[in-house]
């Protein structure tokens, strides 16, 4: 895979935040001298809730064929709150560069911590100052004043860990979507508030924001993506489709395009050679 200086790095949370924070993306492109074609970023569909701190710089959400349209009134706020997205998104940063942090939280954990329903945020972004509880806003504001990114990550752990500890035993654990979804389904099926299929589906959507069929699609997509990028050579897409629980290769191709905006092979190739696919490289 081509080595690229995309200014991005991955933060994996400690065990104290397992089941709460999936990951953190840090990116600082100031001073990298990126060319015009290197300013884009492609994100796949995701069931996660995202808090985005923009410490410096700006970005625009592009309206591109095959990608989610921009949320009306979207702007780059100091702290942006975005919910689960059922399709891919296409952003472009300012030429001068951007410095920011994206904290990716599991939607059921976010709901338990804040009382906010991820379903109300699906396919949208809002100014976090209009939604988050006061203690969260005070903490989030302190990250802007922190000395460096390491101090910011320490502040994330210090704020979330004691709040999460009393809730962790009831959480849906798992480092990958399949593990999280399985645990979420078991918890929903065992709830004492009703066990019919309809009640089960409603409970999943209430906790995660997206219906079970969308969560399963994202889980299959992650499994296929990780398998596809594991080797240097192109995989057998037909075999991979079987292993990832798709009906056939055509099903894999349709779902991959719906969730990422690209065919499986185009995604595999471009991820290895284009700066715009840095979130995929961090995820793999």
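Q: What amino acid sequence fits the structure above?
A:
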């Amino acid at each position: 895979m081509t080595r690229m200086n995309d200014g991005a790095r991955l933060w994996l949370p400690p065990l104290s935040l397992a089941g709460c924070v999936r990951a953190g993306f840090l990116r600082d492109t100031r001073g990298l001298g990126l060319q015009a074609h290197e300013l884009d970023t492609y994100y796949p569909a995701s069931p996660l809730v995202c808090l985005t701190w923009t410490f410096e710089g700006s970005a625009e959400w592009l309206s591109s064929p095959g990608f989610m349209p921009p949320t009306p009134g979207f702007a780059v706020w100091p702290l942006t709150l975005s919910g689960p997205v059922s399709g891919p998104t296409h952003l472009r940063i300012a030429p001068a560069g951007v410095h920011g942090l994206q904290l990716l939280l599991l939607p059921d954990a976010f709901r338990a911590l804040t009382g906010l329903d991820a379903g109300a945020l699906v396919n949208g972004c809002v100014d976090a100052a209009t939604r988050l509880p006061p203690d969260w806003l005070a903490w989030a504001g302190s990250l802007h004043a922190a000395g460096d990114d390491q101090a910011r990550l320490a502040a994330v752990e210090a704020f979330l860990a004691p709040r999460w500890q009393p809730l962790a035993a009831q959480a849906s654990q798992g480092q990958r979507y399949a593990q999280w979804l399985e645990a979420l389904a078991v918890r929903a099926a065992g709830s004492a508030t009703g066990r019919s299929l309809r009640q089960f589906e409603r409970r999943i959507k209430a906790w995660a924001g997206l219906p079970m069929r969308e969560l399963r699609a994202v889980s299959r997509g992650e499994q296929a993506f990780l398998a596809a990028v594991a080797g240097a050579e192109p995989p057998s897409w037909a075999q991979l489709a079987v292993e990832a629980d798709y009906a056939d290769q055509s099903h894999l191709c349709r779902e991959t395009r719906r969730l990422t905006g690209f065919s499986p092979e185009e995604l595999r190739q471009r991820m290895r050679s284009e700066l715009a696919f840095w979130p995929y490289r961090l995820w793999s």
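Q: And what stands out in the fold?
A: The domain at 8-169 is CATH 2.60.120 (Jelly Rolls).
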